[in-house]
Design goal:
alpha+beta, Topoisomerase I, Chain A, domain 4, 2 domains, 4-stranded antiparallel beta sheet, 4 helices, 6 strands
Length: about 190
């Protein structure tokens, strides 16, 4: 029965890719001193009675390296968008100009840059933990198949395949962390 064991490595890889995608989203929300529309992704506006992403209530643009603008479509939501940005913890002070909200991105000081690199490192560690948990799930499936009569050669083959997949994703997490920390520390 266990001779026809086939580990779904595609499922494991898909789940590990999901952890990588989550890491990219978390990294995008970190401020690097440079304007980016993605830094507003986690900010939700109370629009029409439900939390709504900013990009669904207005057009987000980056006209300059240190400026983000939001052209709010509904005049009644301008103050709600401004309030959501102020309360988001991004450390940005919105400036109003009719239905356009301008967000000047201040220069980051050295201390704040170091704090952000630590935050980025914790995001990366969470991604590594997720990848290792998925690896453990795969190894558990292999152990179960071994108990059901899988040969030792097959067990070693599948364990090596899972470990190779894990190493590839951990290496990708480390590369993304190094890139993000470089962006944050760049003056």
């Amino acid at each position: 029965m266990a001779d026809d064991f086939e580990l779904d490595t595609d499922d494991l890889e898909r789940r590990m890719d999901g952890a990588m995608s989550s890491l990219r989203t978390e990294f995008a929300s970190l401020r690097t001193g440079r304007a980016s529309a993605s830094m507003l992704e986690p900010v939700m506006v109370d629009a029409y009675g439900s939390p709504t992403p900013i990009n669904q209530v207005g057009t987000v643009n980056v006209p300059e390296p240190r400026m983000v603008t939001i052209n709010v479509w509904d005049k009644g939501l301008v103050n709600k968008v401004e309030k959501a940005i102020r309360e988001s913890g991004l450390g940005i002070n919105p400036q109003m100009n009719g239905t356009i909200i301008m967000l000047p991105i201040p220069e980051l000081n050295e201390e704040r840059r170091r704090e952000l690199t630590k935050v980025a490192a914790s995001y990366a560690e969470n991604a590594r933990v997720s990848v290792r948990n998925i690896r453990r799930d795969g190894m558990d499936q292999i152990k179960k198949a071994k108990a059901d009569g899988m040969s030792e050669d097959d067990q070693k083959f599948w364990e090596a395949a899972v470990q190779e997949l894990t190493d590839k994703h951990i290496k990708a997490v480390d590369a993304q962390l190094e890139t993000k920390q470089g962006e944050i520390m760049q003056v």
